[in-house]
Design brief:
two-stranded antiparallel sheet, 11 helices, globular
């Protein structure tokens, strides 16, 4: 992998790490298998792209548009949680329903299947004028700093009263209810925050590639889960700040493995094989975890 390919891999890894932190909230903290991300990721991208190209005062500012993308993602996650906690629709089905509806909504928002971001300012525009280093290096450093800030904010939130209640609600809902915690409300907040992160990730991704696309959410749930699973495998964590760092590490490792697999000579793989390689990588990690658990369980049994 060349230096330029490595920097490009890091750039995408940092963007998807924001998405992965959202997946960490739903799958690890709340134990809620949420598929809304397949719709909230492109929803954030669509909202940001349309606002940036709208020419409207304030709203066309790329930073404001990216923030609005996060709000849009929050709304999508909140709707999924509402379907589950208020109307008792199965959590997986709730996410599928919202993600399915968002596909059509995204096309409505963009008035078409995609929205190009040509000759408009994005959050990266300033870096094109940086003379100290190449613009692509400045973008990567910016995204690295951004994911660190988001991680620290998430760590701080999960240490607050609401954050601790959310963790308790995911770990043991019955015990949490017995202690006066509104578990349903924690699901509403948790899914909203998780999909807000997905929306911001989608907005940044659209500004990176220069367009938003209604189909860009396909496979995003696998990317989020792969990053979480790989990170937790590489760095088993007991403390929350370690766990969020492990998710970021897992995203970098995941993107690096994908880049190596697709760029290695003799593999016969190309960009269209991305989803297949991703699924294969996740299966490989899960199988390795299975044999590892069995090995150590058998070893412990022999000692006892």
């Amino acid at each position: 992998m060349s230096y330029y390919e490595f920097m490009g891999t890091l750039e995408l890894a940092f963007i998807f790490a924001i998405l992965a932190l959202g997946a960490f909230i739903t799958f690890k903290i709340l134990d809620f298998p949420d598929l809304t991300v397949e719709g909230s990721f492109p929803f954030g991208a669509s909202v940001a792209a349309v606002l940036i190209t709208s020419g409207l005062p304030v709203l066309s500012n790329p930073w404001v548009a990216t923030f609005c993308a996060g709000i849009a993602g929050f709304g999508a996650g909140y709707l999924t949680a509402t379907l589950n906690v208020k109307f008792k629709i199965l959590h997986i089905l709730s996410g599928i329903l919202v993600a399915t509806a968002l596909y059509s909504i995204n096309i409505r928002v963009m008035d078409g299947p995609n929205e190009p971001l040509l000759n408009v300012d994005t959050v990266y525009t300033w870096f094109d004028t940086v003379e100290v280093m190449a613009s692509f290096e400045a973008k990567t450093l910016f995204l690295g700093a951004l994911i660190i800030v988001i991680k620290l904010l998430l760590d701080a939130f999960l240490s607050t009263g609401i954050g601790l209640s959310m963790r308790a609600a995911g770990a043991n809902p019955e015990m949490a209810r017995a202690n006066g915690i509104n578990v349903d409300k924690m699901k509403l907040y948790g899914l909203g925050i998780a999909n807000a992160l997905a929306g911001v990730s989608g907005a940044l991704f659209a500004q990176t590639i220069g367009a938003s696309d209604a189909q860009s959410g396909i496979g995003m749930i696998i990317i989020g889960l792969a990053s979480v699973i790989i990170g937790m495998s590489l760095m088993p964590s007991r403390l929350m700040w370690q766990a969020t760092f492990a998710v970021i590490l897992g995203t970098v490792a995941y993107r690096s493995a994908i880049a190596v697999a697709l760029n290695a000579d003799g593999t016969g793989l190309n960009a269209s094989d991305l989803q297949m390689v991703t699924a294969g990588l996740v299966i490989l990690v899960l199988v390795a975890q299975y044999y590892s658990r069995n090995y150590f369980a058998a070893k412990k049994g022999r000692k006892s």
